[in-house]
Amino acid sequence: MDIIRMKNVKKTYKTGTTAIYDLDLNIKKGEFVFVIGSTGCGKSTLIKMLYREEKPTSGKILVGGLDVGKIRNGKVYKLRRKIGVVFQDYQLLQNSTAYENVAFALEVLGLPKSEIHPKVMKVLDLVGLKNKAKQYPNHLSGGEQQRVAIARAIVNGPKILICDEPTGNLDPKTSMEIMEVLEAINKLGTTIIMVTHDIDIVEKLKKRVVLLDSGRIVKDYKEGEYKK
Amino acid sequence: MKAFRILGRNVRDSFKSVFRNFSLSLASISCITITLIVVAVSIVLTLNVNNFTSLIEKDVTIVAFLKTDITEEEIDKLYDEIIALDNIEKENVVFKDKMDISKEMMAESETFRSIMQNWSREESPIQDTYQIKVTDINLIHKTADDLRKIDNIDVVKYGEGMVEELVKVFDVIRKVSIAIVVSLILVTAFLIANTIKIAIMSRKKEIEIMRLVGASNINIKLPFMFEGLILGILGSIIPIIITVYGYTALYNHFDGQLFTQFIKLIHPGAFIYLVSLVLLAIGMIVGMFGSYRAVRKYLKI
Which of A72, A121, B14, B241 could, after both became Cys, cross-link B226 (CB 3.0–4.6 A)? Predict the structure, then answer.
């Protein structure tokens, strides 16, 4: 079953630049997909449309059954609650502890404290940060901050995790640690789409790889097909 | 239950972020404080101007001089005729006997005394009068004309010409002062809203993260609105203290009147609390809507 469907998607910015041309892409439930391509090829635009940071100019995007292009501004949160998003720069609240950052995603859903606590501790354990729950982001290393961001993204059990260059700021060793966390999450059934520049990681993990160039999919490698 | 939990969290977070963003909060609070002090002063001034001008207007009296040959019965009948007219304040139609008027005049001046002391009721050229107050000063001219038509009234006087001028000038003063207050309040609202906007601009990322993790727009706006509300309340504390204590001190210092007994100050009692309430309301409303507008900008994608 496809959890993400993109059909004839086109995105032209107000400036007149077209970032995506007639793109078709289907992603099955539980898949792990890398999106790669050179800078400016439309990778970021592609995933931004998935979490409705950008709207497609034309075409249809279905994410978990929701028609992304038709979601009104005030209803975007409904989509956001179904997906988790992780960024290169972590996007953590600097004034809140690791625990508070993760708990925040559940607080906005109106969950009671008694439910929030076990869930937050569980995901912090999953990303290996159980003993750093009370630390503030600026006391954590880059890898640790990214783990907090991942924990926050998955704490409410989203079906889809979108990662925009999550290892972009990290050294190779830490990057691999993050990838291990993501793989573990993927094994639990979460679909992961990850945009990256890091070809080494892509080759090592042997997942499906979508290669973009100038706003078009030029190659869709099946698991294990991609070679540098 | 869920809604209350979210509301509770919003209130808690608002208090937290007032302190976590202390320097920005302080900037907003100072802005609110200073502008509200200016507003407070102008409201106090305007209301006092309104008060004393209407007091003066109320003080304007029409004096109807009665014919000298009038009898007691006719005086009583005349009273009924006067109060039957339009625009008459019925409880303020007062008869003054000419002998009483002489006494008053003699008490006022030695010269009058030497001339008038030997006059008997029959000799006295002074006339009995009715002193009449009107309900609407703008119609005083017509009321005076109506009085003139009554048989036993000899002459009607009320400071014709000067009263009309006074009314006109007071009207302009009142309108101008109200316009000043209204525009000051608008400027205040604008200034406060802008300060808050700048404070919130620095928290754009926070808003983006809230959106990212699936906070609904109302859930993002509410904590900021509460925060604005708190800033508004904190910012209006000093202006309210100044109004309450400052105005009371001023009132006591001047003994309730400014320079002359014609300019009476409004008694502090309920007045200072009313002004305080207005200040608090401005602080709260502008704080809240300032935040609302600033946040809304970041929720449009």
Answer: B14
Nearest to B89 by CA among B146, B128, B130, B136: B136
Q: What is the pLDDT of residues A6-31, one digit of tens each?
A: 999 999 999 988 999 989 999 999 99
ipTM: 0.80
Query: From the list B17, B205, B215, which residue is nearest A77 (CB)?
Result: B215
- Which pLDDT tens digit goes with each residue over B66-96? 888 888 888 888 888 888 888 888 888 888 8
Q: Give the HSE-up count for residue A206: Cα atoms under 13 Å, Cβ half-sphere.
A: 2
Of the candidates A24, A27, A28, which has an alpha carbon nearest to the alpha carbon of residue A60? A24
Contact B3 A110 (CB under 8 A): yes
At the second CATH level, the architecture of B61-158 is 2-Layer Sandwich (3.30)
Best of B210, B212, B224, B295 to disrupt the A interface by mutation (most A CBs within 10 Å)? B212
Q: For residue B197, count CB atoms less than 10 angstroms from its CB and return exposed for 0-12, middle for 13-18, buried for 19 or more.
A: middle
Question: For residue B279, which of B37, B14, B25, B18 has the smallest C-alpha distance?
Answer: B37
Dihedral of alpha carbons A78, A79, A82, A83, sign: negative
pLDDT digits (tens, 9 = 90+) for B198-220: 878 877 888 888 888 888 888 88
Structure tokens at B153: 């009234």
In angstroms, what CA-CA distances link B245 with B48, B51, B137, B275, B282?
A: 17, 20, 35, 12, 20
CB atoms closer than 10 angstroms to residue A99: 21
Q: Could you tell me the residue ranges of all domains in chain A?
A: 92-157
- Per residue in B181-195, pLDDT (tens digit) is 899 888 888 888 888
Q: B-contacting residues of A 61-100, CB under 8 Å?
A: 73-74, 76-78, 80-81, 85, 91-93, 95
- Domain limits of chain B? 2-56+165-297, 61-158
DSSP B251-294: HHHTTTBSSSTTSBPPPHHHHHHHHHHHHHHHHHHHHHHHHHHH
Secondary structure E strands in A13-102 = 18-28, 32-36, 58-63, 66-67, 83-87
DSSP H or E segment with residue A204: helix A199-205
